[in-house]
Amino acid sequence: MIVGIVLLGAACAYGSSFSLFIDVPSLLVVIGCAHAILFGIYGTDAFRILYPKFVFSTPHRGRRIARAGSHLYILAGWIGTGIGWIKMADHLEDLSKFGAAFAVSLLPLLYGYCAHLLVWFPLQDNLGSQLEPIESAENILQPKNSPKSASKQ
Question: What is the pLDDT of residue 20?
Fold first, then answer.
């Protein structure tokens, strides 16, 4: 994950200023919207999932939260991009600023996908690998004629 962050930062800084990729309102839209919805669904676990103790103590719930966080951050990025496009459409009379405005309008989408790739997807994958031994042990312990195994087939 650290290598991904370093490579992403290097790609952003190469050939231009890194400050082009920082927009506080876009960050607030993505993080604020996505995490507010996560908080509304999962309560304080939406914040506690980011700490390793929580992840290891409740992997099933953690995986559901990570999956939801992954989807919500991407959706919040699209919402932020839509807001940017609406604001751009309101100021189309000055086309000299269109390029810069369009670039900024894409930043929430970048932030949403970066959060997905660098935070939520690795967390979800890590939890999935923790659950595989548990789920395979549950399958071994289930008798073949039990209602639980019959419903899976």
Answer: 79
CB 63, CB 124: distance < 8 Å: yes
Q: Is 108 helix (H, G, I), strand (E, B) or coil?
A: helix
User: What one-character DSSP code corresponds to residue 118?
Assistant: I
In this structure, what token pair is assigned to residue 142? 């289930």
pLDDT of residue 137: 46
Nearest 5 degrees, angle CA 144-CA 148-CA 152?
85
CA distance 122 to 70: 10
CA-nearest of 61, 85, 76 to 115 is 76
Q: Look up residue 108 and give its two tokens.
A: 């929430």
| Side chain identity, residue 102 | F
* Rounded-to-integer distance, Cα 68 and Cα 38, Å: 7
